[in-house]
Amino acid sequence: MTCPAPLTDVPLHQHNSFGIASTARWLLPLTDRSQFTEAVDLARLEARRQQRAITVLGGGSNVLLDEVIEGPILQVATRGVHFESLGNSDVLMHVEAGEPWHDVVTQSAAAGLWGIENLSLIPGTVGAAPVQNIGAYGSEISQCLTEVRAIDVRTAIEHTFAANQCAFDYRDSRFKREAGQWLITRVTLRLSRTGKARTDYPGVAAALIASGLASPDSASPAQVVNAIAEIRRRKLPDPAVIGNAGSFFKNPQVSTEIASQLSLDWPKLPTFAVERSEERKLSAAWMIEACGWKGHRQGAVGVSDQHALVLVNHGGGRARDLLALAADIIASVEQRFGVTLEREPVFINGSMP
Length: 353
Ligand SMILES: Cc1cc2nc3c(=O)[nH]c(=O)nc-3n(C[C@H](O)[C@H](O)[C@H](O)COP(=O)(O)OP(=O)(O)OC[C@H]3O[C@@H](n4cnc5c(N)ncnc54)[C@H](O)[C@@H]3O)c2cc1C
Known about the structure:
Strand order of the largest sheet: 6-7-12-10-11
Oligomer: single chain
Structural class: alpha+beta
CATH topology of the largest domain: Uridine Diphospho-n-acetylenolpyruvylglucosamine Reductase, domain 3
Bound molecules: flavin-adenine dinucleotide
């Protein structure tokens, strides 16, 4: 299938979950994997002509868009899911990058497969999921991802990365660190027909019991998907009602010595063990709330009154307003706790060379 003609001056407010008013000068939506090479070539020409970087956009649920994006945007909307049985209890799920992530979670659960059920109701596309190694309720995509295919936009050549080549970390990966270089085209997950609910994260077991199960151990993957979705709907503001990108800050990781000192000074500050690490994670939401930010409004933007980790756009807010508010929050948390918060959403700087 040949590439469609690029679109010009495209309004993006409906293509980002913050609902930021932004305009794409040049945007190519991609619906078929056969379009990728030609599309990357076209975007490279445009990027060279404009002296700007290429931006890859998925569902827009983890970006802060500048008012005008001058450089070319490739919007990934390719669909397709293919199951491959491995002959034991394991199944590979090959997924095209434009598939909505939550649809993949529900399809996997409907097939009775375990692995990604705790990642229910995370917005966005499959192609973006490895970028920040999406995670929630004790799971991360890196725990069952086996392969990522990605095109190097500098050469238009597709590469295949095994999981151990992706440099996955907490909300991080090589694709995030090497921003602007990779267009992820396909992801493969290794799922299992056997398993049981992961209930180590607070609230999951209680939600399963509340859904009518006698024990969390008797839950099916689909019941876990529904229970987690139910918790998330209760806790997080809905972007369809008020613009947001979920958690705006990562939970900071510090040494056990620093965590112990902070726990002495602030006995109620929640801290969590970090898998395969001596470090401990601190609750960013607790620290932000302790600094008085929850529900705070600053012009058109603010901090959700439902969840202190979520910044919101009340209407008419720009990326720069959110970045200014975030900088104030970071400064106050730093001053009070001596801990530096790190932003989660990616700022797409419209005039970036
Ligand atoms: C209400 C809400 C709740 C959320 N909850 C969670 C959560 O629990 N856990 C979590 O981890 N995240 C969460 N998020 C953040 C977000 O959903 C994820 O980061 C998601 O993976 C972003 O997908 P997207 O397609 O919208 O990516 P976009 O926002 O379009 O892009 C995000 C980044 O990925 C890059 N990118 C997108 N597609 C591709 C591709 N095909 N190839 C290469 N790079 C690409 C972009 O360039 C950008 O840097 C939440 C967001 C919202 C709005």
